């Protein structure tokens, strides 16, 4: 088979696997619930499929998460894949290949002999930040930091798009990484999933190392902190663990809401915070809720977490979502994405920025792999799961009622045959909004407007799209109606 033909076959196989995984993942979300699915199933990445052995690889970002999923969900995943694709006989769950191991941190004993080193930790430079990260090869104050370990090079302040919902947190993060000592510490970033708190933590790490090239930083998730603490406890290496933690100039712990239950680990973190603050070191924490709302966390630790600045990142508004998409598209200059698709994604995928960017990436990848142009129809067809999860359930009846109130026309005019301009334009706007805000097809929309043909609806949608680019009044009307319907 020619190379081009093989490539096309491989692309199609990859698309088929991705489609099957989307169905399996959605089924597991219904079975396991949103929280378990988000924490353990959603981070899974598809690997290769070996037809000879019938083995499919599934990858997770860390050894801890891979072991957890393998222990608890391996049978369920294997069964689901066998049902969806009988040729899959084995499912292998492991850590994403290509992870770099961190250098061992050796701490000299009083007699000069090196102490037993801490276990090497898999580095996971993912946006979720599951790996423990250090930038020093030793705890020697004169050691030069290894600036790139564990920080995603794409997550910097330059690539962080700001708006009214996140500007405070971004400014506070920049201050934390500045040359001069910040006026507050710790910095506590509070945001729902996918709103940018992990991005800011990576950005702080990059900027701090740029301003302090000899600095030592420590970045991990609360989950990994707990794992490392328990391992040090079991291996009788608590002295080394404490020295390691307190030898860093910047300590960053993500997803602090997971540091619950283990009183001794919380106490150790409390003492570490006190020790670092006493030495003027910098601390950053992130969670999906405010410190006072953390369950199972000791009161003394809560007071330390909230004693600096708690910066809240609100859900991205429509303007910020547009800006994020435009910024992302600047990286795909060769891919043409129409303005109506950008507007559609910005309005429809409104739960979090991570889903928004993921939806755009999926759409562009599909278009490139299949050779299809990016269009509104393609977005609706390929992003069904994301769109349905984000859509507010707006009905065509609600749209008609709102449009009639806005233009002060009788509701019966939506289905009437009258061709007066004062009636036709509101009817066309309502059809356009029905297509943008509901999952209904053109024929279904036509039936709701007096049994009109689908070609009439298509004409109305395209006309309003065109008028919005040329007529400021029409664009203002549509924007106002969108705000009313989405509020």
Automatic annotation (TrEMBL):
Residues 183-312 form the AAA+ ATPase domain. NCBIfam families: DnaA. InterPro entries: AAA+_ATPase, Chromosome_initiator_DnaA, Chromosome_initiator_DnaA-like, Chromosome_initiator_DnaA_CS, DnaA_C, DnaA_dom, DnaA_N_dom, DnaA_N_sf. PROSITE patterns: DNAA (PS01008). SMART domains: AAA, Bac_DnaA_C. Plays an essential role in the initiation and regulation of chromosomal replication. ATP-DnaA binds to the origin of replication (oriC) to initiate formation of the DNA replication initiation complex once per cell cycle. Binds the DnaA box (a 9 base pair repeat at the origin) and separates the double-stranded (ds)DNA. Forms a right-handed helical filament on oriC DNA; dsDNA binds to the exterior of the filament while single-stranded (ss)DNA is stabiized in the filament's interior. The lineage of its organism: Bacteria, Pseudomonadati, Pseudomonadota, Alphaproteobacteria, Sphingomonadales. Keywords: ATP-binding, Cytoplasm, DNA replication, DNA-binding, Lipid-binding, Nucleotide-binding. Residues 395-464 form the Chromosomal replication initiator DnaA C-terminal domain. Residues 368-487 are annotated as: Domain IV, binds dsDNA. It comes from the Bacteria. ATP binds at residues 194, 196-198. Belongs to the DnaA family. Domain I is involved in oligomerization and binding regulators, domain II is flexibile and of varying length in different bacteria, domain III forms the AAA+ region, while domain IV binds dsDNA. Oligomerizes as a right-handed, spiral filament on DNA at oriC. Residues 1-111 are annotated as: Domain I, interacts with DnaA modulators. Transmembrane segments: none annotated. This is Chromosomal replication initiator protein DnaA. It is found in: Cytoplasm. PANTHER family: CHROMOSOMAL REPLICATION INITIATOR PROTEIN DNAA.
